[in-house]
């Protein structure tokens, strides 16, 4: 949605800006010809209205443009030059002051509208278009059954057999399973570390670690999944507002628990061996 709105803004605001510049120049060069002035004003108003209705207004219902402060001063200076040029290139001799005032008034009325349009178009070209909060929530709800997608993705672990050797092999396969690793840094997820905590991308269900999500999002406000190239909008509050992948964290805890259980029999054998050694020494004595 954000890309489509940016495209419509560039078409609509860019077209209005181009038409406004041509109309400003045409009014200056009209040389007090009332017919040319009227035609230029009508073409400018009608064309700008059509572009606004079909491109700018639909996008403004879902997004907003953050104005660029520094450009405003240059914009005001540009329109001041347009208005000042009216007095320079439209002499009053032979036409009277009324004709000059008419052109000056037309330039002034157009400048009131085009000052804001120029600023919005410049901000759009600088990628300062953002989704409204309500549309961010709608995009999050649009992801169909995220939990089921994550479960299908993560819980595809080989079935453990009853033999000890088979269970060891399965454990190694689980440890090397790619869904327990971040697809960007290729490091294993870890629940005890904030940076390595897996978080779910709402648009596709894939998981990335917290640190990589912060790096990819930056100041853009969205993350593109490296696996499927789908875009996920970062909620208000940052990456920490994305849901954790508790299924992956549960599998990691289970794997760590199995490793601890595998070490315990070795410790028991050492203890029993020490006890037998003591008993044998007592018998010999």
Automatic annotation (TrEMBL):
GO molecular function (one): zinc ion binding
Superkingdom: Eukaryota
InterPro entries given in the database record: E3_ubiquitin-ligase_RING, Znf_RING, Znf_RING/FYVE/PHD, Znf_RING_CS
One Pfam family, short name: zf-RING_5
Protein name, UniProt field: RING-type domain-containing protein
Lineage: Eukaryota, Metazoa, Ecdysozoa, Nematoda, Chromadorea
Regions that span the bilayer: 12-30, 36-59, 71-89, 101-122
SMART domains: RING
